[in-house]
Amino acid sequence: MYCVVPASALPATADEAPAGVDGGEVRRIVVGDIAALVSTLDSAGYAADAVSERVLDAEWLTPRAVAHDTVVTWASDVGPVVPLPMWVMFASSEGVAAMLETRSALLQKEIDVVRGAREYGVRVIGDRHALAEAAVLLDPNLAALEQQAQIAPPGQAYLLRRKLAAARKDSARDAADRVASEIHASLAGVARASALRRREKTGGGSGQPNLILDGAYLVSDDQYDDFRLALTQLIQRYDTTGTTDGCRFDFTGPWPPYHFVRGDE
Predict the structure, then answer these.
(1) Stated pTM of the model
(2) Quick check: 32 and 104 in contact, CB under 8 A?
(3) How confident is the model at residue 207 (pLDDT cuts 50, 70, 90)?
(4) CA nearest to 252, candidates 214, 196, 195, 209
(5) Are strands 34-38 and 3-6 parallel, antiparallel or unpaired?
(6) Preceding peptide of 254 cis, ω within 30°
(7) Is 15 a residue whose pLDDT tops 90?
(8) Structure confidence by residue, pLDDT tens digits, 142-176
(9) In angstroms, rounded to a whole number, what is the distance separating the alpha carbons of residues 78 and 95?
(10) Angle, to 10 degrees, between the axis of helix 104-114 and the axis of helix 93-102?
């Protein structure tokens, strides 16, 4: 089972659905106002034990994951969709229909949540050295500590530099948190809903880039221009090409709204 969609979205487009897992035909099971998009799979090859043994086999898993995502993405291009993760399987069409009937109210509510909106992803990569330098500029205590280390006797200077290195690490982390929070708040303000997928702390000592924000945003179609404008302004403010804050933005989408529905839960 790939996803749940409004039944009214299907009649004109259902025959255009892409092939499903293993090239199977994607068909619909309709109950009232909602429908599930499903394919029939070989029961032996996709028994729970067989699947659990093969999910770590990338060569086997990848084409099936791509097929699943292709169907869900096609459905999200047609209209609102409640996407399901892979391996939501039922023993029969009757089982799918029973689930749709039992969970009809919840699924309809989730369809309404994402109707007229798409999911977009924004990842912000921070450069540790650049963030540390920006933190020094903003923190007078760090500047004072650095000045003390420059004029102190060798023994004291060594201790002060160790203290300065630790303080820079903390300040770089704080700067990353501040930047991430400001970016997320700005984007969430022009989105219907938002979710932080992952948040990593930025430390010191290494110049390697670090992921400081990984956000998902459900953006209404009529808010898309405002969202893009807000993102453009944030890039101009924080991107490494224009400031010392040391950030790079990755913007992706539109995606099916995986982060804003509960699906099969």
Answers:
(1) 0.76
(2) yes
(3) very low
(4) 214
(5) antiparallel
(6) yes
(7) no
(8) 666 666 666 767 766 666 666 666 666 666 666 77
(9) 25
(10) 80
Side chain identity at residue 62, one-letter code: T
Integer CA distances (angstroms), 57 to 4, 40, 52, 62, 253, in order = 28, 22, 10, 8, 27
The structure tokens listed for 191 are 């989105």
Task: Name which of 101, 87, 92, 70 is nearest 7 in CA terms.
Answer: 101
Query: Quick check: 129 and 246 in contact, CB under 8 A?
Result: yes
DSSP letters spanning 177-234: HHHHHHHHHHHHTTSSEEEEEE-----SS---EEEEEEEEEEEEGGGHHHHHHHHHHH
pLDDT reading at 259 higher than 60:
yes
Q: 103-145: per-residue pLDDT in tens?
A: 999 999 999 999 999 999 999 887 666 666 655 555 666 666 6
Q: DSSP secondary structure string, the chain?
A: --EEEEGGGSTTTGGGPPP-GGGPPPEEEEETTEEEEE----TTTTSHHHHHHHTT-HHHHHHHHHHHHHHHHHHHHHS--EE--TT---SSHHHHHHHHHHTHHHHHHHHHHHTTEEEEEEEEEEEHHHHHHHHHHH-HHHHHHHHHHHHS-HHHHHHHHHHHHHHHHHHHHHHHHHHHHHHHHHHHTTSSEEEEEE-----SS---EEEEEEEEEEEEGGGHHHHHHHHHHHHHHHBTTT-SS-EEEEEEEEE--GGG--TT-
Alpha-carbon torsion 49, 95, 43, 60, what sign?
negative
Average pLDDT over residues 237-249: 64
Q: How many residues does the chain have?
A: 265
Lookup result for tokens 């034990």? 49
